[in-house]
Queue: 4 jobs
Job 1
Amino acid sequence: MPLEIADPPTQAREVVRARLSQLAHSNAFRTPGLRRASPDTLAMSTPHRVALLPLERIRRGLSLRAAVQKKGWRFLIHGDDRIVAAVETTVRRGHRFSHLNEGPFVAGTERAIRLAEASAPIKRGRFVPALLAVPALHLTALWLQDLEDTADRLIAMAPTPPEFRAFRVVSDAQFVAALLKAAARTARAPGRRGADTVG
């Protein structure tokens, strides 16, 4: 079964559409993929929530669903029949445009979604994608949230910390185990305080 796509707030969708239209018609894109794309072909797809996991919340017994901070929404941007960028919104007195990017996690998201849709456990269930970011560990993952149970799956995207293998579908328990190791290593790093963040 294909991944189910979340229905974002109308305001989030509208601010993205308006910003894209404004930038396209004023030739104001600063990234090469969007500059090369024909403005008339630009479209957005695959809306998904963005979730942030602070280092201090990574502890033994961690529940990702309980520990993350939900942020805005993220959309993939297509141009000339290919994914060229991603755009994010933030929530400050309503939904606002945040930023556009064409970094490695744009192509990484597309690759991770294809892997997810080919994974047997995900084919058998109902999952919705989200983006999980752990800034302190320089880690970004596609988070596949189980709509019928709590058997979430995650796919870390390259580049990853050494505790993770990029583009591999893992259970949330496997992902959390790697998180604990990465967080402990980061806490022990010279010059970093807060070695008690993992306990």
Job 2
Amino acid sequence: MKRSWNPAVWFGFLLALIGVISYPILFARFPATRDVPWANWVIVVLALAMIAVGVARAFRQPDRYRGKIAGSILAALALVVAGLFGYGTTVMTKQIPASQGAPRVGDLAPDFTLPDSHNNAITLSALVDSPFVPNGSSTAGSGTEKTAGTVLIFYRGYW
């Protein structure tokens, strides 16, 4: 009986490569799949499952399917690729270098001007020096105003 090729091993290895290569090309563009590449992990896990089925088939039915040696080599390569991808997306992406010029807790923020939600220029010093008037209140100018508090939030990471 003629032995046939084992497509699960080869398609699984191809799917593993697609799962890893598609991350920087496609999935890194979107925040939902950039920060935690769950879609790529699903693709890689499916690929490893296909390879496992193909290798098991080659060893259980060697008279019917080829691929003991090639399947084992491709399985090892796919595991290495999946391991490096997993290490790179879980450990290496968290290795952000320390920022040299970032303000520390308690530092005074430099004065700056940014547009607000209505595209009006707002200066930090104007916000800090302005009186605090709650919404719906008409107590402005009564002499009991408190200085408005300003909260600055700094996001660090990928933009």
Job 3
Amino acid sequence: MAASIIGYTLTMPETIGVYGGTFDPPHLGHLILAAEALAQLRLSRLLWVLTPQPPHKSRQPVTPLHHRLEMLRCAIAGAPEFELSTVEIDRPGPHYTVDTLERLRLQYPQAEFVLLIGGDSLHNLPTWRRPEAILAACRYVGVMRRPGDSIELEALERRLPGLGEKIRFVDAPQLDISSSTIRTRVAGGGHYRYYLPPGVYEYIERERLYR
């Protein structure tokens, strides 16, 4: 983005959203939240950062990476404002958010970043690896709340000073759906088709995932 001031052209840094997760599988709820964050936080683009194995889920089974990678490609196909980032796939684990942001800064040195997290992750943010460095690396922390989610900002600010001024809430219609619910429905032979982008549904059926 460029702006002209008294004959001089200034290049404004683009603002990039960083949306990380296992996306196992990516569903319509993910896409709705991403689209609302893009619009409400005025992001120039949004990076979907696929996490091979989150540190906090080290003991939980996760669908093989190549399947999740292909499902995510199907989910965001045709949306130029959405980009798949392999920043965590391209390096060995464990994968911590602070390290991911530092690597993204090397890839996009002129950009500002908005870290997108859920309300539940916000509660735990002070316990993440180097949370102060996470705040320093971000312009904002975009928080996508669930209905009825109670967030005590004063308590969080005491645990992580400076957090309050960084938070920007994203308001979006919330679907009562999760990746774990979809996996359970597939395994049990239940209905799940219309919770997913068509390409993701077709991929799950073709590869017989979650059976």
Job 4
Amino acid sequence: MSARHETRNLMQQLGARGISLSFDEANTLRRAEKTLHRWAELECGDSGPYASWSIERDGQTGKPYWCVYPHTGEARRSPIADREAGALKRIKAICDAHGIHFYHQTDPRGCALYVSAEPIKDYDYSRGVACCA
């Protein structure tokens, strides 16, 4: 399925819940969801035969770092762009402009972004529209 088709599907799902967004706004939400989903996967980390790696936030500053933990040798930590914050900022701007609410679900096993005309509770977020394909 093409990205354009996925955005049109999202627009239909939102419209069925009384949320009217432009194609560009719906596309921004869909793309931001993909960014948040990938970020959550990287926060969980992964490993290979020689090292493990993940995104970690500094406890003091909150800045994200790409951390690599070789199975032998010294760990490395490099600063990276905070794509999660950027995606959430774009989502918030759209939701604020339309008076709608969003929920950022951080478990990479599911959709990362839900929106609704009503406030979304963390224990009931799936009542919102999932902004993933």
